[in-house]
Amino acid sequence: MAKFTYKAHDIQQEWCKGCGICVHFCPKKVLELNEKNKVFVAHPDKCIACRMCEFRCPDLAIEVIVEKNNDP
To answer: Where does residue 42 rank: exposed (0-12), middle (13-18), buried (19+ CB within 10 A)?
Structure first.
């Protein structure tokens, strides 16, 4: 099975409605809502590239940029 390494989050702030679904489903608590109720990456070093935030976002406002590992 292919393994992936986290590179970055691509967040479309103008699409985010601040529902907090991505924050709730993140197993490592990487994401938080700011003072405008928009999602941001608070702890990028904790991201395990599970992409739950991307899959759960109803507005398609988050994309997790990953790099495929070429391990045998």
So the answer is: middle
Q: Which residues fall within 8 angstroms of residue 20, CB to CB, at 6 or more apart?
A: 33, 39
Residue pair 9/41 in contact (Cβ under 8 Å)? The answer is yes
Q: What pTM did the predictor assign?
A: 0.84
Digit-coded pLDDT (tens) for 26-36: 999 999 999 99
Fold classification of 4-68 is: Alpha-Beta Plaits (3.30.70)
Give the pLDDT band of residue 5 (cuts 50, 70, 90): confident
